[in-house]
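Input structure tokens:
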């Protein structure tokens, strides 16, 4: 059977009992979720605020005339189009399962997280008690060679341990970890949008810290320049990536000029308590001056193709 447990972990002797450990994990994973979710909200609100096409797009439903509802709809529609059975269309989901193996070498408590973002696993690995880690790496896979830094006996023990937890020969478990006890992060990005809508969120959050005015300006310039250049559609993804890099370089080149440094920026994003306004109440969408777009197009055309 193919085994790919790249995020397998082992609990150290410093890890508490499962009840206390779950409490510790729950607290930290909720913090990580909030850290990841706020930038998602900021980026999607910025898309509504800055892009006329997004404001005018027909996505159905009376509620979607409100800024935060439309931002949430943009996010959910994009996630629904993803094919990722682990995160279930939400890259911010997190869950973890636990198991224990007992043999002549003693008892080993194992864990395997299922995370849509590497930040969750990194946070798990950083958990400590008395300055000692609660988790250490215990990954295993049989699709390649043993990592040279892991001793042969240790690698074999990992294989045997995970095989026992997977119960690969048991038809009921079907060689998965789903039968093991675990914990799942109850939050979802949809819920965070709802929290913002209902005012049940930290009012100190400033969306502009997570989607900066400079980032929004560059994105608006990129969008306008792409339209102005009217680039031929090409099938080769490498050509598309090269064109995007050239546009980004041209934008940076322009923003370093006196004219670029004086370019009027977009207005700041609304506060989290102001996101329930209708799009008609928003200021006009940010549009870079035509002369700025024209100058960036010149920089684009002046770039030697050899650089790409």
């Amino acid at each position: 059977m193919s085994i790919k447990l790249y995020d397998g972990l082992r609990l150290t002797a410093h890890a508490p009992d499962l009840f206390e450990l779950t409490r510790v994990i729950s607290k930290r994973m909720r913090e990580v979720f909030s850290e990841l979710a706020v930038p998602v909200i900021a980026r999607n609100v910025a898309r509504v605020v800055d892009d006329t096409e997004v404001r005018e797009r027909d996505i159905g439903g009376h509620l979607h005339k409100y800024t935060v509802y439309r931002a949430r709809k943009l996010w959910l529609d994009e996630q629904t189009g993803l094919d990722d059975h682990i995160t279930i269309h939400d890259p911010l989901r997190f869950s973890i399962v636990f198991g224990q193996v007992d043999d002549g070498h003693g008892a080993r408590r194992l864990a395997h997280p299922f995370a849509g973002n590497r930040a969750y696993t990194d946070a798990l690995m950083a958990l400590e008690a008395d300055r000692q880690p609660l988790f250490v790496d215990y990954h295993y896979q049989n699709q390649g060679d043993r990592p040279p830094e892991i001793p042969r006996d240790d690698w074999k023990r990992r294989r045997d341990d995970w095989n026992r937890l997977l119960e690969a020969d048991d038809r009921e478990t079907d060689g998965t970890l789903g039968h093991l006890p675990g914990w799942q992060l109850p939050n979802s990005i949809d819920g965070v949008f709802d929290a913002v809508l209902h005012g049940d969120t930290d009012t100190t959050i400033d969306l502009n810290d997570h989607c900066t005015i400079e980032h929004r300006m560059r994105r608006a310039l990129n969008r306008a320049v792409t339209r102005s250049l009217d680039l031929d559609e090409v099938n080769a993804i490498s050509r598309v990536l090269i064109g995007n890099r050239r546009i980004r370089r041209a934008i940076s080149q322009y923003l370093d000029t006196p004219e670029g440094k004086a370019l009027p920026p977009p207005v700041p994003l609304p506060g989290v308590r102001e996101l329930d306004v209708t799009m008609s109440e928003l200021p006009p969408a940010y549009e870079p001056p035509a002369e700025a777009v024209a100058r960036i197009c010149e920089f684009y055309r002046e770039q030697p193709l050899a650089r790409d």
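The first helix runs from residue 18 to 50. Residues 83-88 have pLDDT under 50 and may be disordered.
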